[in-house]
Amino acid sequence: MDVEKLRAILAALQGTDVTRLDWTNGQERLTLRMGHPPAPVTALHAVPGAAPAVAGLPTPPQVTPLAPAGSAQAPAAAAAARDDSFTVNSPFVGTFYRSASPDNPAFVEPGQVVKKGQVLCIVEAMKLMNEIEAEQPGRLVEALIQNGSPVEYGEPLFRFEPV
Q1: Which contacts qualify for 22-29: CB closer than 8 Å, 24 or more apart?
Q2: Who contacts 91 (Cβ-Cβ below 8 Å, separation ≥6)?
Q3: How confident is the model over 74-124, as pLDDT tens digits?
C-alpha cells in the first residue's frame, strides 16, 4: 500500500467517530482501529552492572551472543532449526499487546491451537491498534515477546508448531 494513501485515510478518519475500518483491494488488506488500550503497568528492576537509564531515552535490550559451533548449545539450536515450527512476525514497528486491555485475558496461550484468521495479538503503530491474525493453523509453542514491549518490523512474536 502506498504511504500517501495511508496518510490520506488516516487524515480522513481524524475527528470522526469511526473506531474501526476494514479495507480490501485485490490482495491488499488493511484493518485500522482508532484509539488504544491503557498503557500497561511495568516494573523497573535494577540490573547490577548496568548503566543507569537517561530520562526519556529507551534502554537498549540485552543481547545474548550465539554459542560457537562446537559448543554444547549448538546441537540444541541445530535441532530447533530442523523442526517444522514456524513463527508469526510483526508486520509493523510498534508496541506489542497480548490482549485487548490489561483486564482481558491474552488472545492465545501456549499449548492452545489456533485457526487461520484468529487474532493472536495487537501491535500498536502510530496510535492505531492493529490486530495480528494467524495466517495458518497451529499450536502455540511460545510467545517470544513480553506484553507492552516494543517490536521491530519482521521481529518474531510467536512460535507455532503445525497441527
Answers
A1: 28/1
A2: 123, 130, 132, 153
A3: 444 444 555 789 999 999 899 999 999 889 999 999 999 999 999 999 999
